[in-house]
């Protein structure tokens, strides 16, 4: 029983080994002829040959006893077929031997073909049907070796026809062959070879490209092998076009490891070496590379077999090391890799399902928190549906602006007044507290210098805040120079600053809860039709009891350039309502000077931080030096604003006045204001505690909005 099985297995493997030879021999007997091309055989065939003859991709056509080869969209006349070095020579059908005015009909260059590089080109020949495998690739290759049967032939070179508007320069004219001797076309030239960019003239354009494999004789029996041929006549170029060009079909069926074309004897030879300059010779690394290559190819074979494709390889019994690597890698490609991929896909699906579940649960929790807050508090603002919000904005037609927290659109209430509707962005780390904070803060405020919250929308993941509409927009476009914007007088600037101070003072002391804004800046000050200022955007605001003068934050918040230093340095004082005082001071300087406080292009170090320069001018009483941005009759008003601002931006919170004191100073006379100390940017000593404290800062951009990742819990009401 065992012997019968052995015989069957032996016959089976013997059949597999003979199958490529049987397939190859099946295609040999077919011979045909057409005109001067005789004994046409595999892989070529004529269209009228039986179906089993040759390869369909190498089909020739016999028309009027002339053999033709189709390439791309054209056809070429076959001059010869050399089965020893696997080349076929063809000629453009429009080239006539006795008429040098005939031009190539079809456009063809080396780029239409792939390359074979002599003996450095390797072929993996352990295929089930190596002929078919190789011929199923692009059928023709660009030759790079001489034809031994034709001493005049050489590797293919392009003939480039150039149409020029003026003759080429003296430097490069030796490369340009004038076609005037044959063609009735003014300033048409031909270049033979692969030209470098330097010899191409700007007044010339490529008209067409043809190929030739003619071996050029440059005189003194020396053949030219350079990039571009010099000083050649167009008559010789036409002779080269008559000769045609060679292309190769490289086919190989090697019984050993690899094979290459030996250009000395004109045949393919087998080798056990890897014919590459980087890996010459035998040894450990060569064998290791062989095994690695075969492992990769075996894995590819296994994947093909798994997907229903036929194998491309058969095993060589004379190389047990490589065959074992191929067999094991086929198993890996057929079973191991699909198993790994399947596990990865299952894990990926489960991971995505977990992400979706977590996302929905988080946002469901946020929505529940907001609903609980809204139901537990009696609020003045009206609650709108998302459908009503879309109707107010006419499907978000007019966009007023955008910021880090959402986009603002203009809307209109049914009763007639315009409103500003802010659609809040839902951030991945949000927990709904920002929305609760803004609704809870503005919902209980009614002051002439604080923007009024008319209503809100909470519907699933959609959140919107409906404010009273401020037709003059934000303050920043009026204090910083912009085209087509109304210029405010300094009396108006002073009145606006007073209104802002009153609004902030009301937030600190006018409500039953102390409200800290934490984001006072020009962009968050809105102006109504009469340029009355209103403090807006309470996304970072916090509520605290009136008697609680000390605030604990888990992260810095605000906008760089307006943030109080105690938000960064814990050793200068605790966070309190004085943080808003600092922000107002920075805002007041920008309003009075109509410029940014930080000037990276300043010529002097004292001007880099603008408050330093303002302080120096006030001390030296050099008003004339600041006349470029101050009118003389308003010096007292602006000096008062600058002095108040310098008091507000003192480094230590204890040295800053309260907002009620700021209102008093703005309303009073400059003579009653003492000269403030020189402001300091940062403390001279910083402790490690300061460096390690958490600050939620993404960059040092002047207008970047900073929002904390973790928000304060509300203090007891």
From TrEMBL:
<feature type="signal peptide">
    <location>
        <begin position="1"/>
        <end position="25"/>
    </location>
</feature>
<dbReference type="InterPro" id="IPR011009">
    <property type="entry name" value="Kinase-like_dom_sf"/>
</dbReference>
<feature type="transmembrane region" description="Helical">
    <location>
        <begin position="335"/>
        <end position="357"/>
    </location>
</feature>
<feature type="domain" description="Protein kinase">
    <location>
        <begin position="394"/>
        <end position="681"/>
    </location>
</feature>
<dbReference type="GO" id="GO:0004674">
    <property type="term" value="F:protein serine/threonine kinase activity"/>
</dbReference>
<keyword id="KW-1133">Transmembrane helix</keyword>
<dbReference type="GO" id="GO:0016020">
    <property type="term" value="C:membrane"/>
</dbReference>
<keyword id="KW-0723">Serine/threonine-protein kinase</keyword>
<keyword id="KW-0472">Membrane</keyword>
<keyword id="KW-0067">ATP-binding</keyword>
<keyword id="KW-0732">Signal</keyword>
<protein>
    <recommendedName>
        <fullName>Protein kinase domain-containing protein</fullName>
    </recommendedName>
</protein>
<keyword id="KW-0547">Nucleotide-binding</keyword>
<keyword id="KW-0418">Kinase</keyword>
<dbReference type="GO" id="GO:0030247">
    <property type="term" value="F:polysaccharide binding"/>
</dbReference>
<dbReference type="InterPro" id="IPR008271">
    <property type="entry name" value="Ser/Thr_kinase_AS"/>
</dbReference>
<dbReference type="GO" id="GO:0005524">
    <property type="term" value="F:ATP binding"/>
</dbReference>
<keyword id="KW-0325">Glycoprotein</keyword>
<dbReference type="InterPro" id="IPR045874">
    <property type="entry name" value="LRK10/LRL21-25-like"/>
</dbReference>
<dbReference type="InterPro" id="IPR025287">
    <property type="entry name" value="WAK_GUB"/>
</dbReference>
<keyword id="KW-0808">Transferase</keyword>
<feature type="binding site">
    <location>
        <position position="422"/>
    </location>
    <ligand>
        <name>ATP</name>
    </ligand>
</feature>
<dbReference type="Pfam" id="PF13947">
    <property type="entry name" value="GUB_WAK_bind"/>
</dbReference>
<keyword id="KW-0812">Transmembrane</keyword>
<dbReference type="InterPro" id="IPR017441">
    <property type="entry name" value="Protein_kinase_ATP_BS"/>
</dbReference>
<dbReference type="InterPro" id="IPR000719">
    <property type="entry name" value="Prot_kinase_dom"/>
</dbReference>
<dbReference type="Pfam" id="PF00069">
    <property type="entry name" value="Pkinase"/>
</dbReference>
